[in-house]
Amino acid sequence: MTTRMATKKTKTAKTAVPARDEALDAKKKRARRILTALHKLYPDADCALEHVDPLQLLIATVLSAQSTDENVNKVTPVLFKRFKTAKALADAPREKIEEIIHSTGFFRQKAKSIQGACRMIVDDLGGKVPDTMEELITLPGVARKTANVVLGTAFGKNEGVVVDTHIGRLAVRLGLTWNGKDSKDAVKIEQDLMQIFPRKDWTFAGHALIWHGRRVCGARKPNCPGCRLAKNCPSAGTIE
Predict the structure, then answer these.
(1) Would the pLDDT of 230 be above 60?
(2) Which of 27, 110, 145, 192 is catalytic?
(3) Is 145 marked active-site?
(4) Catalytic site includes residue 164
(5) Which of 38, 14, 4 is nearest to 167 (CA)?
């Protein structure tokens, strides 16, 4: 009887993620240890969307919403071979763009956003993708996530942390953000991550967490026994 009760108490304690009550300094120290492990695991972590310039990355990121990078990487070579510049995309018959990007989902809205963004780039921004957060988020279809991808990967500017489904999931599991009602609030999660990770590592942290989410910490069956972050993860071994 006593043994069973002790086992039950131990399990309950283990499943509690301390993100809400953990002191900020303690969380920062744990975040640094996680970041160090990520640098060792994924020293070459980078954006998986194939591109050759900021415009291609911008459009690929818009297409990646509700789609996979693998699928987007099949579509963009066809799109960019047909329409090589922002002006060509802005002036293209929309149905042609929709036909090419159809498999990425929400293709009508994405085609509208792509053309709207390209038209603004041509008419208002000198034909170049802007390199500031303020200008990027004025483009149709571009919010902070897309802007962070473009700024960090194409321009080497750490203006924020990308928060996609993988990063949001890992931030909660790793106890880097409060895992209550805000667990799916990308803005809140980004603010938390920006507070505990050094600015110089914001872009890398996003790429590395995405890689780890895809390779180790999956949504349904995280490989906790094989996870190099487990010793700094309050959720390790608790997800069934």
Answers:
(1) yes
(2) 145
(3) yes
(4) yes
(5) 38
